[in-house]
Amino acid sequence: MPSPEQLSERELRVLEAVIQSYVETAEPAGSQTIARRFGLGVSPATIRNTMGELEEKGFLYHPHTSAGRIPTDRGYRIYVDNLMRLSPPSDHERSTIRAEVAGARGAVEEVLRRAAPVLGVLTQELGVAVAPALDRIVLERLELVPVASDRLLLVFDLRSGVVRTIFVQVPGAMAAEAVQRVAQILNERLAGHTLEEIRRTLPERLRDAETAGGSRELLNIFIAEGEGIFDLSGDANSLMLGSAQLLADQPEFASNARMRDLLELTERRDLLREALAARRRGGIAITIGGENLDARLADFTLVTASYRAGDLTGVIGVMGPTRMPYDKIIGLVEHTSRLVEGLLA
Length: 345
Hints:
alpha+beta; Arc Repressor Mutant, subunit A; Beta-Lactamase; Enolase-like, domain 1; 3 domains; three-stranded antiparallel β-sheet
């Protein structure tokens, strides 16, 4: 990880100016522009030499079609860690977030479905959120609903207002009494435990249940296939995204190829869910370009903050090009995560 000790005070000031100029204009910054806009007290020639030194050290990049320079991932990292001054959300931004999110009824997913898009609108990036891992959510109630001769709909009513449904295959039509009896047994023996606990102890909890006929046959399906039935870790509903159009309007995605890459990325919900879920450990997390473990995210920055809902943790934040106003975005992400946490308390 680069450190500011590698750079002189002048180099740090020039690097900061180049980044601020590029973030604002999306145009490579030249020495004349930096000298005119930022009042560094040195000549354009000195700034040009300093920019050359920063390029040699890997903090700036010189596009071959331009005389100006743009920041590298290493340059952004120095800026975020050592030069940036955080800009707290304005009163208008705070009230906008609260007005949108406070309308949710306390269910974690409804809160996140409102929070991710409004965060995207305010930052002009792609708002993202991941609900808490379902493994640690407590099951409150189950329902079994016949939907076809060979299928039952299993409805999970989980704590924090989370509801999930899956289909369970059965050998043939089940009598309504048998289905009701099995649902009663499942609720008596599984409610009040986390999905992780249920998977681990399911055979022991169900094996001695008193059943007969069709209900025994159905209960045996749950005993044999319980590990898969009660595994919702790959749940597609756990990832919420704002509008990708906000990113599409940015200069980085002006070309058709870059636009296709963006659309493909937003459709890869498994990739984004995995990248975000790994950030539940706490606090603000910022990964810039090549710092992302997956090469498909190498042109993007992820700024996220974790939130807590009881014993559970999730993630909310934004994804955008590495050229972003970090000082503003970090403050908005942190504020939104605290607001979400307060609504779920």
